[in-house]
Task: inverse folding
């Protein structure tokens, strides 16, 4: 009699996860819709080229596009896990989401705040976005990633100090990348960087890192309110 093949243990859905995922259904619809929006955003960058298309770093000089890249990676893993029912891909998606989702919320928050003060701080007057592309770049990623976390994901186990460390590493890594692009191009992607001295740029990136870590905590709090505060603390 042939020996029995021992299959690896596949953990079931976390008890606090509100809706089934990975799965073909609402989960796959959300992830497909998100990827469709992200693809349309990338197409817009190609169809309506600007000076930045020929510059060192391409559009990845923009924090918005880096956020879009991470959102695309998150939802690609999510969609593949929906199609294959792979818990491994689902777990990878949840790990990437810990960075991608607070970053998307940070981008939406900063963009909205700066535009309310002066739109030319983030978008030069020669570059104009219509309403739909604007929402696609600066609102949709935060919305769909937040919905995915609150309804289709287990709770994050990251603590505030860990979230702060991750956010600061990303913030200053982005600053290093921006300065690298500046050395090649001779200009910054965002007008606000031109307007600030180096000490004030340090303040801006530190503030952004703290705000991103704060976004992580707010998302965890909302998750707890929606799915059970005491249980989230125990898990």
Result:
């Amino acid at each position: 009699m042939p020996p029995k093949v021992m299959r690896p243990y596949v953990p079931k859905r976390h008890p606090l996860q509100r809706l089934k995922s990975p799965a073909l259904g609402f989960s796959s619809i959300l992830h497909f819709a998100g990827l469709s929006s992200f693809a349309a955003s990338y197409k817009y960058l190609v169809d309506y080229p600007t000076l930045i298309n020929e510059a060192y770093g391409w559009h990845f000089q923009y924090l918005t596009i880096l956020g879009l890249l991470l959102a695309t990676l998150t939802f690609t893993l999510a969609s593949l896990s929906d199609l294959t029912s792979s818990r491994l891909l689902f777990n990878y998606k949840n790990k990437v989401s810990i960075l991608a989702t607070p970053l998307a919320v940070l981008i939406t928050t900063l963009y909205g705040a700066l535009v309310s003060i002066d739109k030319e701080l983030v978008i030069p007057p020669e570059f104009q976005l219509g309403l739909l592309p604007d929402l696609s770049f600066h609102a949709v990623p935060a919305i769909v990633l937040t919905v995915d976390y609150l309804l289709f994901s287990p709770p994050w186990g990251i603590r505030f100090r860990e979230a702060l460390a991750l956010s600061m590493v990303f913030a200053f890594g982005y600053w290093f990348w921006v300065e690298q692009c500046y050395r090649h191009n001779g200009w910054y992607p965002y007008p606000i960087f031109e307007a600030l001295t180096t000490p004030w740029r340090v303040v801006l990136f530190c503030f952004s890192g703290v705000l991103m870590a704060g976004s992580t905590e707010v998302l965890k709090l909302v998750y707890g309110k929606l799915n059970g505060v005491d249980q989230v603390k125990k898990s």
